[in-house]
Amino acid sequence: MSVTEDTVARNRALQVEWYGEPLGDRVRPLLDRLGLSQSGLAGVLGLSAPMLSQLMSGQRAKISNPAVLHRLMAIEDLVADPAFDALTAAEIKARLAEIGAGPAATTSGLRRATSERIPAGEGPDDHGTHAGSREPARLVQALLREVASAAEIDAAADLIAERFPDLAEVLRVYGTGRTSEAEAHYARTVLGRLLGDRSAMP
Amino acid sequence: MPVLLTQVRKSGPFGWVVFRTIGAVNTGWVIGGRFTMLDRIGTGGTSRVRRAYDHAEGRYCAAKLVRRQGPTSMLRVVRERALRLAHPHVLTPYASCMADDDVLLAMDLVSGGSLETLLGDYGRLPPEYAAEVLDQLLAALSHIHGAGVVHRDVKPANLLLEPSPVGAPHTRLADFGIALGDDGMRFTTTGFTVGTPGYLAPEVLDWNRPGPRQDLYAAGMVGWRMLTGAGDPEPRQRVGPPPAGVPAMLWSVVARLCATDPAQRPGSAAAARRALAACRLELRFPARTLDGEPLQIFDHLGPPPR
User: Fold this and answer.
1) Which structural domain, as residue segments, surrounds residue B138?
2) Both A125 and A173 in a single domain?
């Protein structure tokens, strides 16, 4: 998708107007300083490699995604920092990873991923109920459901129900019940005891 | 020895997860006497998807190596599913063959990147553009749900695009790696719940049975991202008010798809498409971004290695 020389000249002029200098001139020094390839830098910026190439060569004028411009400025700040030269390659890599924002990966370890994103008690839908019980309750659920099906857990609970009713309840609540019940159970048993404030729990 | 498969055992949170890495590949790596394996495509260095040359069909394809679950009957299952799911907006294997402990799935090579790539390049998309992409996604979902399959991992990274210099979107819903059929067969059984957190419907977070409406929720979140330009949604993401310039009708379609209660979502992907059509948005080409720049879908793969 090449464009005419006129268009490139016009785009470069627009880039000077918008970004202070043509994007190629602004971006190229970063590659040297960071020891990154163009496609490596594109990955950190959250742009595709062809898009970065088009912007740097003036085939396109504008960075349409504002998040990309923010990341570009964050990288420039990093490089301009007097402390930058003292950073090791691993430290630079870590800082770039912080700046870059990769898309969420598919996960089967969902419980962990979820609780990392929304720490217990901070979720927007938390309604203040069972704060602190969400993550552990779900981990117990995940563990049980990893090793046995709902039917197996139910059968196991039946086996022990007579002699160990509390244990059977744990299996049923975490193994086959709803998450809200598990959280309530966790809050009632563990947190209630830890906090010494069982009356506050439902 | 043309190929070295090494097994690395790595501890996961609830057990052992086995990863395979390809240790050494020389250029003459041929699988099944038919597929010459070439460069890695797809995201990240760990992707198991490669460009390959299919000597039987005389064309390049995307070859994905999937760990074999059971006996050879898997090949039959793959073939049957692929036939049932064939649709212009669905990417399924057109051929498969055994490769040691793996199954090779051959698919059309879609080289325009994913919707995730497009959102990275352009940020939020014009409403009529987002509506078109959403419609194509819903068409794909309508078809696979009709075939009794729930995708379970609908997200921008799994919506692949054909390249287009005028930005005409042609999306293909890909990666049925964790799809669940009516028969209950899963391709991946590593965890109880699979998917990507922000796109998982609340009822799935609460451990209910998977169903077609969880795909509608995820499709709604894809629409939400296209219209807001925001990053990945949080679990139980609130949709919020429509961004400036987004028609109220379109926003309400997206908001209904994202309803917390599955009963409040459209009854089917087809019903959602009808609601979308009622918005009467028209996409013109060449497509332009909200700030007036040409919206092009680049070829992200380039010429094949020789």
Assistant:
1) 115-277
2) yes
